[in-house]
Amino acid sequence: MDAPDRDPSHRQSDGMPQKRFYRARAHSNPLNDCQFPVPVSPVEQDWAEHFPAFFPSDPSVAPLADDAKVRMVDVGCGFGGLLMQLSPLFPKDLMVGMELRDKVSEYVKERILASRKNHPGEFENVSCLRTNAMKYLPNYFEKGQLTKLFFLFPDPHFKAANHRRRIVTRTLLAEYAHFLQVGGTLYTVTDVPELGDWMSEACDNHPLFERLTQEELDVDPCIPLLTTATEEGQKVARNEGVRCMNVFRRISPEGL
């Protein structure tokens, strides 16, 4: 995972990137064509570039985990707040943020590299891809590979004509179900009640997802992070805004 060279003045004294130099529009149109490399298939993706500690080039060096594969994906990861807090909770699980905005994904990459340098042995299990999750999940992941998918404060696309751009729809849920293991978890949070209802209804009506019970939510270590880890979540909290959370489990088709 290489980050482009930046003016040293864009970094703090500890090497961490300064967010003000990486600002971008709040959202991008996922239906637009963007120019970035995409693997032809999952087997073509070189994860060693992103997680060198898990794929050591020296055969005498033991990897941090056997059979390492990406298991968690933060779709539209923004500035990487969730990834950085999930990393120590699941140190042996590889996780990646997918972000469409060029400057923002560059910031996350530099943040991760600086964090690894400042805290040796930590944050080796997180990385970021500049890509379009709405189009290219099949290029990166195999069937049943993922254990967790996060959709935190996605673009609401308010206009009815733009609802097809929403990241959670019945059509896309079928794709997410394909990549999630049975028993895997799909997390959604928004501060837009109408979008919350939209995502909740889509998941409730999909035969491959069922809602987690309150008892299950209470013991899930990811739940407290959903509304506090991201920049958007922190902004909503400061403004005392509403937060609509819906969490679902991937299940087997009935009768199978």
On the 0 to 100 scale, the average pLDDT is 88
* N→C terminal distance: 40 Å
Instruction: Give the biggest beta sheet.
Output: 7 strands, mixed
- Percent range for β-strand residues: 15-25%
The number of distinct helices, counting runs of at least 4 residues, comes to 8
Helix content: 25-40%
* Overall 3D shape: globular
- Reading side by side through the largest sheet, how are the strands ordered? 3-2-1-4-5-7-6
State the assembly state of the protein chains.
single chain
Structural class, please? Answer: alpha/beta
Cα-based radius of gyration, to the nearest Å: 18 Å
Show unreliable segments: none
How do the SSEs run, as a string of H and E? Answer: EHEHEHEHEHEHHHE
In total, the number of strands is: 7
